[in-house]
Every structure is written in C-alpha cells, then in structure tokens.
Amino acid sequence: MDDKTELEDFFVSTSDCTPESLLGALQAYSAISKKIGSNDPLIFKDLLSVAAGSALFRRSGVDKETEIFLWLSQVQRYAEIVVSTGKVQQFNGLAWESLKEISRSSLNIENIKTISSMLWQYGVVLIYLPQTAGMKTDGVFFKLPCGTPVVGMTLRYDRYDYFWFTLMHELAHISIHYDQLDDPHFDCLEDLGEDIIELEANQLARETFISRSDWRSASVRRHRNEQDLFKDAEKLSIHPAILAGFVRHDLGNYSLFNTIIHEISVKRMISTDA
Hints:
Blueprint: H1 3-7, H2 19-36, H3 41-48, H4 63-84, H5 96-104, H6 115-120, E1 125-128, E2 139-143, E3 149-153, H7 160-177, E4 185-187, H8 196-209, H9 212-217, H10 220-223, H11 226-236, H12 240-251, H13 258-261, H14 266-273
Parallel strand pairs: 1-3
Antiparallel strand pairs: 2-3, 2-4
Helix pairs in contact: 2-3, 5-7, 7-8, 7-12
C-alpha cells in the first residue's frame, strides 16, 4: 500500500486545514516515517490534529522534536480511548474549590490509585506515559478537538511530592490558562524560569496545598527536623512528604528529609493498580 492510499481517508476531515499546514504535515510525516522505519497513517492524522498542530511538530528532521511528537501522539490516542468510554464528564472549567478538593486527595496515599477516574468527574483526562530518550518532561497539558483537557505525566521522578505538585501544576494551567494555551504546553519543573504563565501555575498549585500565611508561619522552615515536619503537616492538613518537598525546594537543600521523600513509590502504586 503506498502513502497516498494510506492517507487518503484522512483528507476527508481536513477542510479546515490550510495548504501550508497540509504540506507541513506531509513533510513531517515523511521525516518521522524514515526515522522510525515504518509508515503509520495514524501519525499523519496526529500531525493534523489540534493536539499535535503546533509548529514545533511540523519542523522535520529534528530528532528531539520527533521523539516529543511521538510521545505526545501516544498520550493523545490513550486520552481519546478514555473519552470514547463516555465516562469523562463535559469540561466546564476548574474552579479554586475543585483544585483544593483534588489536592486534598493527597492526604491518603491510596487515592493515587483512583485519581485518574476522579478527574473524569471534572472533565479532565490524566494519562501516564514514560518519557523517551531525548525528552526532559514532567507533564504536558493540551486539549482534544472536543475540548477535553488532557494532562500527560511522565513520572520522571518516583516521588510522592513530585507527583502531586506536577499534577496540580498542570491542573492549575487548565484552571487559569485553558483559553490562552492552544498548543500543547510542556513542563519541566526544574526549568520553568520566570515565565509569567509558569509563575502563575506554580503559585496556584502551591496554594492548593498550603496558603502563603500558613507557609510563613510553619515552624519546619526554621527548625528543619522531622518532629516539626509532622507537627506542621498535621496542623495544616498536608501530607508530610509534600510539605518536605516544599521545604527542600525553598531552602535549596535536597538532602533534607530523604527518608520521608523516598518512602512512597508512586510508580509501584500505579503499576500495582493497573
């Protein structure tokens, strides 16, 4: 079967595509097909989709971009399968109260096994997919053509605090940047810089766990011992591992609370539940 026959079925739904976008998709499809050694027509479909429509994925011949595109393409397909079950509610925004309710789920580590289905009630799809070589990504937010927001997570670090902050960071983007971000928005939490969009998402994500005033008064910031950590965690209704993560980050001291930080294996919990 030649490329033209493989692709012709997809052109019937591309009336909204410009000649330039079609040409760009074909060029990228050719480059990606050569790289992976096969012609998968679904790749061409993904290149024309909303999620993969960024100019980033239409520049051919760049290995890093190809790896990112193929990863994103898989996340999108998994998300579309989840939506096709009919279990995902229509997305109507994520209010502060909803974000707070989701973050409270972190108090019980068993909730990590059901957080994906919990998010369906808010109209959000969560997909886990390990990153591939050449990527340095913690999470991505994008929208399916139907408008459903999708969060993809790589679980790059197997830590409870990292999982929850990455998730709430992406949900914060959905809450306050849903209408601003049309292309897939990738995040590496170590390299967010001073971009205003990232600062806003970081601040909102953090405040779903602990308010600014509570953080300023937390004794563990000064004493840095486990006794104060557990005392503050109980008082502020925040999981000790997440509070420990905030302390380590703010002090720039990643040797603190190592035992607590690495006590929970998120990957093991998710794979056991699968």
